[in-house]
TrEMBL record:
Organism field: Dyadobacter jejuensis
Residues spanning the signal sequence: 1-18
Domain Peptidase M16 C-terminal intervals: 190-366
Domain Peptidase M16 N-terminal residue range list: 45-180
Gene3D superfamilies tied to this protein: Metalloenzyme, LuxS/M16 peptidase-like
GO molecular function: metal ion binding
Protein name: Putative Zn-dependent peptidase
Coiled-coil stretches: none
InterPro entries from the UniProt entry: Metalloenz_LuxS/M16, MPP/UQCRC_Complex, Pept_M16_N, Peptidase_M16_C
Keywords: Signal
Top-rank taxon, per record: Bacteria
Length: 458
């Protein structure tokens, strides 16, 4: 205990200081001859290493087969030229490490966490998984079957799928409108041949970044990574020039998704958002903290604390490389659907009509300055940040200038932010509930399009 207490006090002191002077730790960038970008950041506080490798292989590349990118990422761990799936799992588990693949709208890849003493063994295994997957047919079919069951089960939870319906409403002519995990109809026909072709096309070194953060010597690690990945040759990736998605709707629209056995209505209301590297992200975060970004937000106070219409309400911005969305989310009993929606809209309207005052703004700024640094203090979050900087086109000023941007935000600027980024008209409504009991009541919000939740697509 005598040794632990000084450490606790030191961490508290560091955390308090970070709120006032939070800077991205020093790191080194190296580009290998095959195009692979490396980020190396030493962090010696804990004897752990975090690795995060990302490719331009997200769902935006799925084309006519939603879910192909996600299924490809999962298939990396199903066996390699040297190891079976079982052997991969055993090697990872035996030393208490972790290794997982991931895929989202804009990227896919693999991350790992392990003790620094096990770095040689785990980095070799990491390389094997990334560069020599065999896409074992038997393991692939078993994994695909599990995913199909998960997709069917997801429809039983409106909160799990409402975001897919919302994206389909906002991005009907852009890849962001398709679900990252696909649908049973799109996943069922996918073969290992398609997985292998997707891998060969998009898992390429010329648009890949590997970040490694933790307890190591950068000079030695650079040599090690160059030896492991320097001779990895891939074909040049097929780049597709994309423009930001257009939003052509005029006026409010309502998508009503019928779930016949529902006893409550889950709803998401919003519209166009911002791209990942938007220069206005920081002031938007501050304003959204007031509207629905924390427990004491206006939305949560109105819909949960003061009225008891829900257990919680929030607003958020989902950011992608080429665009994004803004949404207000909550759920309520079927009988209180309209009162809850009306109250949410009233709170949003008050942001425009009443605005903020100095006291409210100061509270939100203090909250954001205290809440932000812990998001980027772990080695894993720093590794993810470094690859995000590469993937989404921003630099360390996002971190280093964050406190200053928060402090500079004044009431005049909040008025511009509210007007530009928090829509009060041309709203998109997605409601999942028992249609027969709410259909006539929600017509007042806009023209209705109806769907059945049991339908395959979104």
């Amino acid at each position: 205990m005598k040794k632990i207490l000084p450490l606790i006090f030191t961490l508290v002191a560091i955390g308090a200081q970070a709120q006032h002077n939070f800077k991205l730790p020093a790191y080194e960038t190296v580009k290998l001859k095959n195009g692979l970008t490396l980020f190396l950041m030493e962090q010696h506080e804990v004897p752990l290493i975090q690795v995060h490798l990302t490719f331009d292989a997200g769902a935006i590349q799925d084309g006519e087969i939603p879910g192909l990118s996600s299924l490809t990422a999962q298939s990396l761990m199903l066996g390699t030229a040297k190891y079976t799936k079982s052997e991969i799992d055993q090697n990872v588990d035996f030393v208490g490490a972790s290794m997982q693949t991931f895929a989202d709208h804009d990227q896919a890849g693999i991350r790992a966490s392990f003790a620094s003493k096990d770095q040689d063994q785990l980095l070799a295994l990491f390389k094997e998984v990334v560069t020599r997957p065999t896409f074992n047919e038997e393991e692939f079919l078993k994994n695909k079957e599990r995913k199909l069951l998960e997709l069917v089960q997801a429809k039983e939870s409106p909160r799990s799928v409402i975001g897919n319906y919302f994206n389909a409403q906002l991005f009907p002519d852009f890849p962001y409108g398709s679900p990252v995990d696909g649908t049973p109809e799109s996943l069922a026909p996918i073969t290992t041949a398609q997985i292998r072709k997707f891998y060969e096309t998009y898992y390429t070194t010329d648009h890949a970044a590997l970040a490694i953060v933790g307890d190591f010597d950068s000079k030695k690690m650079k040599t090690k990574l160059t030896s492991l990945f320097g001779d990895w040759k891939t074909q040049p990736s097929r780049m597709i020039k994309r423009k930001s998605p257009s939003h052509s709707w005029s006026g409010n629209r309502v998508l009503l998704v019928n779930k016949e056995d529902a006893r409550e209505t889950t709803f998401l209301i919003g519209g166009k958002g911002i791209a990942y590297n938007s220069p206005d992200y920081v002031p938007i975060m501050v304003v959204n903290t007031i509207l629905g970004g924390r427990f004491t937000s206006w939305l949560n106070d109105a819909l949960r604390v003061n009225s008891g219409l829900t257990y919680g309400a929030r607003s958020s911005f989902s950011r992608y490389k080429y665009g994004g969305s803004f949404g207000i989310f909550t759920f309520t009993k079927t009988a209180t659907t309209v009162p809850a929606i009306d109250m949410a809209l009233q709170v949003l309207d008050s942001l425009h009509t009443t605005g903020l005052n100095e006291e409210i703004l100061a509270s939100a700024k203090a909250y954001v300055k205290g809440d932000f640094p812990p998001n980027y203090e772990s080695a894993g979050s720093l590794a993810q940040l470094l690859t995000a900087m590469y993937r989404f086109g921003f630099d360390e000023t996002f971190i280093n200038g964050f406190q200053q941007k928060v402090e500079q935000l004044d009431l005049k600027e909040t008025k511009r932010i509210i007007k530009e980024y928090f829509p009060k008209d041309q709203l998109q409504f997605v409601l999942i509930g028992k249609s027969s009991e709410i259909r006539e009541q929600v017509r007042k919000y806009g023209p209705i399009t109806e769907r059945e939740i049991k339908e395959d697509n979104y």
